[in-house]
Structures are given as structure tokens and as C-alpha cells.
Design a protein that fits this description.
The chain is of the alpha/beta class. It has 12 helices and 20 strands. Helix 11 links the parallel strand 18 (329-336) and strand 19 (357-359). It is elongated. The structure holds flavin mononucleotide and fe (ii) ion (2 copies).
């Protein structure tokens, strides 16, 4: 936390079953919000209305009788803005600060009427006394209205959803790479993974700033780990793999394709593959499987044929990968079918709609049970993966 003018007034949510209606958050999630107490009092975002009561108590306690002059809305998404009306009701006279798009989107959620507003654009500043905010537009780093705020006297960047993490800081406070990366990666690419070029544009703007602390809207604040986090964001937004290993994702109706996937993993291991990870797309978490597809440079898709197509869990995985703009990877294919195998053809057609995907030869076809006669094909695919 920066100087004493900054007060954290956010909340942790350990009751939520699925974040954004789809993501498991076993360590919960936080909705972060801060007060800057200077000559002017500025509230940085609100929280999900799920935790509105706790949030209002936090704000009240931190204000210690003072009012609020400004409420900066970095992001209109309800996990951050759905307590806005409650703030306006409790502290009338607040001026909302946002860009033109912010107000356009806010009107979809609230009847703002005569509420006082300050419309800002790229580079505009808001003096608060000793502290000054400068606004940095970050369109599509997650929604079109997203903006970051840079406080120059303490060199603090309020980064909106960027640099956030699944996991509430009360039980997941560490920003060391071994603690931060996995849930930051799963968060990043599921939430903003589709928008790599927009994230790169913001990273360029961030390079021009001297940053001592990053305060994201979810998860812990970043200080000493800022260079590492920036490097991970550079990689993720460029769709560059982090690791040289092989990720094997399988979808198997009766277990034979699963056996083939496991056998391929054994062969790769015997050939000295540095890292091998398997995922069962029917049982393992889909958002985690997507994160692994981003982490690894080489991915093998193994699937049973299903009604002249591919098993639905694999189809679903491919649709998710496409929706997240997954690209620049080397892919191996293993199909299984008992009478007319079609899984590889179906998977290939999906992959051809993605950028920079190289499909390795051979494409392995298994008919029913895994047999010793399948061995040479799997060994040849393993060799191709080890090239
Ligand atoms: C509902 C259902 C539909 C299937 N459709 C096909 C198909 O269209 N063509 C085919 O060759 N095999 C089809 N199969 C056979 C599977 O692909 C078969 O389970 C596979 O050969 C063995 O791999 P597994 O044990 O991993 O499922 C189907 C199986 C089921 C249960
Ligand atoms: Fe968001
Ligand atoms: Fe968010």
C-alpha cells in the first residue's frame, strides 16, 4: 500500500460459486477499491453489489466523517460498478469521473439524471491536492470504456482489470511468480486473452511511466514483482508460449483415447521431454485447460469420433481457443473411431480457422482399443513433437 493518503476499501468474496458466471475461483476473488484522502477525497471504483454492505462500511470507516468529491469509474462492468448507486445515495454530491464511453455504458445500468460528471480523455489530469491522477485509456482491456489512472506523486498505477488475479489476497497474498503466475494466467487469458493487441498498446503506454506500485481491481497489489508481471503480460499478449513442454488434452468416450494420450505422455517422457501435462477435457476445469494451451508451445489434441464429428468436450475446447484468439502453436492430433474416424478432420477444420497453427505429421488414427500396431504412429508423433 502506498502512503497514508491511500486506504484500501475493497472486499474479498469467498461465497461466489462462479466468477463472471463461469470461472471457478477456489481461493475466492477480491473486488478492489481505494480511497485517496487528500484536499479532495477520491474513491477509485466500487465493488460488486454482492458485497455492497461490507464495502460501504469500509468506505465509511476510512472517511471518518469526510465526504467524497470524486468517484473514478475505471470500468463499468458490474463486478466494479454495481455499487455505484449506493455510493451516490450515501454521499450525494459526488462527481463521477469517466470517459465519454464510460458514461454511455453507465446509462445502461443507472439513471444518472443530474449526477455531476467529469468527462476525461487520454492524458487529462485530476488534481486532488498533493496527489494528481492522470488518465490512460485502455479500450478493450476488458471492455471498451476501460481506463487506467496513474498517480504521479507516489507513482502508483491503478490498472483496472489488467494485472488482476483470481484468488482473494486474504488467502492468496503473494505476488511471487510461483504463487502468482498460474491464477494470473488463467485470469488474464480467460478474461482479456482475446485482446492481445490492445493489451500491447497499454503496455507501451505503461513503459513510459515510472511505476512503484500497481493496484489492480482483483487480487494483490504488485510492487517488487512488477518487472516479472510486465514480462508475463508481454508474452501472454503476444501469444508467446512460456514453456517448451507438451500439453496433451484428451476427450475420450470409453477410455481408449485416454490410454493413447497417457501412452504418448510416457513415450515423450522416455525421450526426455522437459515438461508434459495431461488434461481430461470432460473432467478438468476448462479455463485451466485453456491457460495450459497458452503456457505450452506444443499441444496435442486427442479425441474420440462422435456421430461423424468430434466428442463435444473437444469441440467446446476448440471453440474456446478460437474465441480467445489462440495462435502461434504446434499441434499434434490423435483421433479414435470404431468405424469411420472423423475426429482429426473435424479438429483440423477448426484449427485452420486460427492463426499460425502448425499441424504435425503424422496425424495418429486409432481404431477402438490401443494396440501394439499403433505404437509406431505414436512414436513418430512423439519424435515430431521433440523436434
Ligand atoms: C455416441 C457415440 C457415437 C460415436 N460415433 C462414431 C462415429 O461417428 N464414427 C466412428 O468411427 N466412431 C464413433 N464412435 C466410436 C467412438 O469413437 C469409440 O468410442 C472410439 O473408437 C474408442 O475410443 P474411446 O474409448 O476413447 O471412446 C461413437 C461412439 C459413441 C458412444
Ligand atoms: Fe472486467
Ligand atoms: Fe473485473
Amino acid at each position: 500500500m502506498p502512503g497514508s493518503a491511500f486506504r484500501y476499501v475493497g472486499v474479498n468474496d469467498h461465497d461466489i460459486d462462479l466468477f463472471e458466471g463461469q470461472y471457478q475461483v477456489p481461493q475466492g476473488i477480491s473486488y478492489n477499491s481505494w480511497l485517496i484522502l487528500d484536499e479532495k477525497v477520491c474513491l477509485m471504483d466500487t465493488v460488486d453489489r454482492r458485497k455492497q454492505g461490507d464495502f460501504l462500511s469500509n468506505v465509511k470507516a476510512a472517511l471518518d466523517g469526510r465526504g467524497i468529491d470524486y468517484l473514478v469509474v475505471s470500468h463499468v462492468e458490474p463486478d466494479h460498478a454495481s455499487s455505484l448507486q449506493a455510493v451516490l445515495d450515501a454521499w450525494p454530491g459526488v462527481t463521477l469521473v469517466g470517459n465519454a464511453k464510460t458514461f454511455q455504458l453507465l446509462e445502461n445500468y443507472f439513471a444518472l439524471g443530474e449526477t455531476s460528471r467529469l468527462v476525461v480523455k487520454e492524458g487529462d489530469t485530476l488534481p486532488l491536492g498533493e496527489h494528481t491522477l492522470t488518465f490512460v485509456m485502455a479500450p478493450m482491456v476488458h471492455w471498451p470504456e476501460v481506463m487506467l489512472s496513474y498517480e504521479s506523486s507516489e507513482q502508483v498505477l491503478f490498472s483496472a482489470d489488467a494485472f488482476g488475479r483470481f484468488g482473494a489476497p486474504d488467502i492468496a497474498p503473494s505476488t511471487e511468480p510461483e504463487d502468482w503466475d498460474d491464477e494470473a494466467r488463467r485470469y488474464y487469458l480467460n478474461i482479456v486473452g482475446k485482446y492481445g493487441p490492445q493489451v500491447q498498446a497499454v503496455l507501451k503506454k505503461a513503459e513510459a511511466l515510472s511505476i512503484r506500485e500497481i493496484l489492480p481491481l482483483h487480487g494483490p497489489a504488485l510492487t517488487s514483482s512488477i518487472p516479472h508481471a510486465l514480462e508475463m503480460y508481454r508474452k501472454w499478449s503476444a501469444y508467446e508460449p512460456e514453456c517448451d513442454g507438451v500439453f496433451i488434452a484428451f476427450a475420450s468416450l470409453h477410455g481408449n483415447t485416454e490410454l493413447a494420450a497417457e501412452h504418448l505422455a510416457d513415450i515423450l517422457d522416455s525421450k526426455g521431454c522437459p515438461e508434459i501435462l495431461l488434461a481430461d477435457l470432460a473432467r478438468d476445469d476448462m479455463s485451466e485447460a485453456l491457460a495450459c494451451a497458452y503456457k505450452y508451445g506444443k499441444v496435442v489434441l486427442c479425441a474420440s469420433t462422435y456421430n461423424a464429428g468430434v466428442m463435444p468436450f473437444m469441440e467446446d475446447f476448440l471453440h474456446h481457443l478460437k474465441a480467445k484468439n489462440w495462435q502461434k502453436r504446434t499441434v499434434g492430433l490423435v483421433e479414435n473411431g470404431s468405424w469411420a474416424p472423423m475426429a482429426a478432420k473435424t479438429m483440423r477444420a477448426e484449427l485452420e480457422g486460427m492463426k499460425g497453427i502448425t499441424i504435425l505429421e503424422p496425424v495418429v488414427t486409432i481404431k477402438g482399443a490401443l494396440k501394439t500396431t499403433d505404437e509406431p504412429q505414436l512414436a513418430a508423433l512423439a519424435d515430431a513433437l521433440m523436434q
